[in-house]
Amino acid sequence: MEQIVQQIEAYKQEIAAFQPKTAEELEQYRIKFLGTKGLVKALFGEMKSVPNEQKKEFGQVLNSFKLLAEGRYEEFEHLKNGAADASAHQDLTLPGEPHRLGTRHPISIVRNKAIRIFERLGFTIAEGPEIENDWHNFTALNLDENHPARDMQDTFYVHNNPDWLLRTHTSSVQVRVMEEGKLPIRIICPGRVYRNETISARAHCFFHQIEGLYIAENVSFADLKQTLYYFVQEFFGENFKVRFRPSFFPFTEPSAEMDISCLICGGEGCNVCKHTGWVEILGCGMVHPQVLENCGIDSKKYTGFAFGMGIERLTMLKYQIKDLRLFSENDLRFLKQFQGAV
């Protein structure tokens, strides 16, 4: 035992004189004294050869030595990640790296601009859940279970009986607001929607919408047209043509679709406008009386109009982008182009 104690005293002197300069020297110390095959573990292994009456005394010596070795290691722990080497090679005269500023996504830019335009007209923002039930997404909007118009909004069902699904439009938010019965109503409903569609340059399985709803007494189709004329002029400027086409939507009557001359090809024809020179930007119409009644609103006293537009399509026209898939690919080369548009 006395020989082992003498060895321990020699090791203590070595530890006291230890002054590492690099992380490598510190690691060598750890391996030699504290590693799985280090001296501390080896000395504890000598306990079995110590007489029983001396085990307590020898154990105290070993514990003291172990604490000394660990304590010395922790004094230089800042060297473990090479901090000393890094600081030794730092040139403090070099210019610092500038912070890179991010940019808003083009969808967010267009969404915010559209919201600001409608806010000037007195519209407020309403939001709702993306996972909806069948009543708010379809039935309340005059889309019965077997209505053929449901085929145009094939979606992703989460649960059947009762039906829960990913909403196909933000019209479900309009239903929820109408059910509250606080009239008049003047809202826009921006948000993400989902449809089971083939992904292409013009379509995706998810996209973003802004829908609007205005319900009060004596609301007319003329109010709808002037609202939308104001929006497109504020959003796109005045160097384009506008047309309304009669259409059909189960939740509006009469219904129309609004087109503008294609801003990408100037009306000459391209893949975005399907070589017609016109691009549909939204659908609209007067709220169907049955929809009002479904939501507890007296259709003989109140009338209203509704409209809905895809934000991706507005963005494609605004910035002359020819492929809708670019919005969801997270390609920084594409996104950095909008840094000046924040």
What is this structure's SSE topology?
Layout: H1 2-16, H2 23-34, H3 39-45, H4 52-75, H5 83-88, H6 106-120, E1 124-125, E2 131-133, H7 134-137, E3 157-159, E4 164-166, H8 171-180, E5 185-194, E6 206-216, H9 221-236, E7 242-249, E8 252-261, E9 278-287, H10 289-294, E10 303-310, H11 311-319, H12 332-335
Parallel strand pairs: 1-5
Antiparallel strand pairs: 2-4, 3-4, 5-6, 6-10, 7-8, 8-9, 9-10
Description of the structure:
The protein is α+β, with helices and mostly antiparallel strands and 342 residues long. It folds into 2 domains: 2-88; 106-341, Bira Bifunctional Protein, Domain 2 (BirA Bifunctional Protein, domain 2, 2-Layer Sandwich). The protein has 12 helices and 10 strands. It has helices at residues 2-16, 23-34, 39-45, 52-75, 83-88, 106-120, 134-137, 171-180, 221-236, 289-294, 311-319, 332-335; strands spanning 124-125, 131-133, 157-159, 164-166, 185-194, 206-216, 242-249, 252-261, 278-287, 303-310. Strands 1-5-6-10-9-8-7 form a 7-stranded mixed sheet, with helices on both faces. The longest helix has 24 residues, at 52-75. The protein is elongated, with a radius of gyration of 36 Å. The mean pLDDT is 86. It catalyses: tRNA(Phe) + L-phenylalanine + ATP = L-phenylalanyl-tRNA(Phe) + AMP + diphosphate + H(+).
